[in-house]
Amino acid sequence: MKKNVYLIQADCTYGNSIYFPYAAGVLAAYAWQFPEINERFHLGQFIYKREDIDKALIMLDSPSVAAFSCYMWNYEYNLLLARRLKEKHRDCTIIFGGHQVPPGGAYLEEYPFIDVLLHGEGEAGFAKVLKRLGGGNDFDGINGISYRKDGQVISNSAFSDYPENYPSPYLCGLFDDMLATEKELVFNGLFESNRGCPYRCAYCDWGELNTSVRKFPIKRILDEIKWFSDNKIEYCYCSDANFGMFERDIDIAEAFIQAKQKTGFPQKFQATYAKNNIERVFKIVSRFNEVNMSKGATVSFQTMSEEALCSIGRKNISVEKYKELMSRYNEAGIVAYSEFILGLPGETYESFRDGLCLLLESGQHFSINVFNCEVLINSEMGNPEYIEKHKIKTVKTPLNQYHCEQLDGVVSGSSRIIVETSSMNSEMWLKSHMFSNCVRVFHNLGLLQCFAIFLRMERDVPYCLFYEGLLLWLEKNGGTISGKAFKKIEDTLFGVLEEKNALTYYNEKYGNLIWPLEEGAYLDIISDIDEFYDEILPFLHRWFDKDDSIFRQLLKYQQSVLKAPFRDDEEARFKYDFFGYFRSAYKNERVPLQKSENTLQIPFSSVPANWIDFAREIVWFGRKGDSNIFLNLKQSFTADGGANKK
To answer: At 333, is the pLDDT very low, low, confident or very high (cuts 50, 70, 90)?
Structure first.
């Protein structure tokens, strides 16, 4: 009788969707191609959801081997399930692998219920372990693993074997039963065309594990795309470290597009794009955008500080090139999002603040993602010598994983985030957080974006001055709608420093989802949007003369273009062409504000009229899609008796 092998890659759900357990799948696809494994072992069902532990144990029937794929978001769940599994089935061989498994064998000393650790890429090591099981369990000579022998922990060479043949779990049919039996959720596809990263950023464990890049066979890639299309997979995420690095990536993108044109699927494609192949990436994203398949382009910096860049071993494209790139994306109507990391060694509050404002100056008005710097076990930043050199202090918080379901009673993961370095103490970390939330809530999400841009271009008010002034106003006016929202953020951050809080927001009013702090604050403010604009008038008036004829018109325009629920379609009349003015500003073009009577048709009925759908479609999806303000409106001019329309 064959022995049962189970692979566990427990993930959370995102709304009504979940990712295929791809990492577990590639291990199984590689191992079960060998007759000696296929003859001796039966591959049991995948555990791909964070099930209740007792329920998961029932699903693991007569296990001989249980292999866990470990990430920040499931590691603690895996530990609890593995411990309980060993108590129930003492002869079950428990294997841990994945990004959250550190080098060496220390975890075997700390967690005696784990039998084998896989380091780095796990396909070859996992298959070799299965082949040796039952034959004395002698794992000598298997690279990239740690295990016990005669009561001693042994770690073999850290260099994993990199096989040339990576069978696809999709094409092997490993996920067919899941598609057939899962009735509550839809599956997102994970896709890779190559593996490895040539860069060695200190905060990332990818380049630390493998700096070579190996391409997968083009036939496998095209066959997988057809599989996604035939099985009506709506969303595919490319897990390549730098999609667009190779010329053939254009052909791969075209294959996805042709698949959608044939069957309607996949509907959306998202990737982390190569930073140093600007023209190729622009071409790829433009093609995806033409067929409404793009989820946005990545134009990442992580930091603008030269000292911080040096400390993490990274180089950026020039600011001039970034401005040009943002102008091209904005003119083409393509969403491009930029990423910053808060807490990098070498960063100060001033450099972080100035870096964010430089992104605004460069035309990044809609999508800036600010991530907390997390210390990953297998990264250079996780090295004790690096930590000591930069005086890094961290706190442990519940997992910062957004837009997934709030699950009561189910063990989540944890994050180890940097809150202090030799260049930024915890007080400045908190101040940086408050400033970045202020920029993202009021600028990127649109609440005061038009005022900030107008004042920058017409009154020479720097973005830093505007948003630092706004943050101070919020502190002094804590009883206002926006003041309360930001006091909630501040209280959360203080709790994080004391290891009491997660960097998350939850309110069942907006669905059973976990939100980032800035989106939670935005939702709280837009819930009382009219009161917010009434309360913020004193702050805005400071930048305008009392008899300034533009002020009321600009306020009306700001309110009109913000996508807000529970409003009827509207014809908004203006004395100035704000619509044309801001369209040019988004392309980094400064044109004089024309005094010309015009009317805008505002389609408020297109905005979801309930809070759960609004939060999901406008706030969550909108940040990497259509944005949170109306960018394409019907405009008609009445000046000079004309009927010119845009």
So the answer is: confident
SS3 531: helix
Residue 19 CA to residue 484 CA, distance in Å, equals 36
Contact 348, 423 (CB under 8 A): yes
Query: Can you give the pLDDT at residue 275?
Result: 81
pLDDT at residue 580 is higher than 90: yes
Q: What is the CA radius of gyration of the chain?
A: 26
Predicted model pTM = 0.89
* Burial grade of 441 (CB within 10 A; 0-12, 13-18, 19 or more): buried
Both tokens of residue 336?
């491009």
- Over range 334-355, report the average pLDDT: 94
Does residue 608 have a cis bond before it (omega within 30 degrees)?
Answer: no
Q: Is the pLDDT of residue 164 over 90?
A: no
pLDDT in tens, 296-305: 888 878 899 9
Domains and CATH numbers, the chain: 3-155 (3.40.50.2300), 192-295 (3.30.750.210), 299-559 (no CATH)
Nearest to 336 by CA among 349, 323, 347: 323
Q: Is the peptide bond before 266 cis (omega within 30 degrees of 0)?
A: yes
Compute the distance between CA of residue 340 and CA of residue 323 in angstroms, rounded to an integer.
Answer: 16
Q: What is the pLDDT of residue 640?
A: 61
Query: What is the H or E stretch that residue 240 is in?
Result: strand 235-243
> What's the DSSP call for residue 593?
P
Between CA 483 and CA 462 the distance in angstroms is 22
Strands (E), 330-373: 336-342, 368-372
490 phi and psi angles, rounded to 5 deg = -60, -45
